[in-house]
Amino acid sequence: MTKIFSEVYDVLEAYKTAAYEKDVENFLSLYAPGIHIYDCWGNWESKGISSWETTVSEWFNGLREESVLLEVTFNEVVIEKTSTLAFVHCAVTFTGYQEESGEQLHQTTNRFTYGLKKVKNSWSIAHEHSSLPIDFETGKGISD
């Protein structure tokens, strides 16, 4: 594994940890200040870190209130990179577990594309796009 590949993959690992710990500050630290996100859940679009912070805070607060641990798994990860830019596309599975019992509550898989840039020896997510295939008969997203 090349150093650049490893550094980009480390961002994904930090994403998983911050989501599991519901750590808003660490989660947001993975993103560039001018982040632009297209999301298939809740807010259609977030521009800038303050907009994204509102969404992430609501998400993590909801998980806390419902006592849910969120496990994030990255599948079929493909990373294309240069020394300062990287594209990642993958399937991301979000599995919610009841904190006390460990019972699985829900699971969904989305398609994600991340655009990362390296500034001052640190990689950050500059663009994120999540999507679901659409069932043409119902017009609804297919999450698994």
Automatic annotation (TrEMBL):
<protein>
    <submittedName>
        <fullName>Nuclear transport factor 2 family protein</fullName>
    </submittedName>
</protein>
<dbReference type="InterPro" id="IPR037401">
    <property type="entry name" value="SnoaL-like"/>
</dbReference>
<dbReference type="Pfam" id="PF13474">
    <property type="entry name" value="SnoaL_3"/>
</dbReference>
<dbReference type="InterPro" id="IPR032710">
    <property type="entry name" value="NTF2-like_dom_sf"/>
</dbReference>
<feature type="domain" description="SnoaL-like">
    <location>
        <begin position="9"/>
        <end position="134"/>
    </location>
</feature>
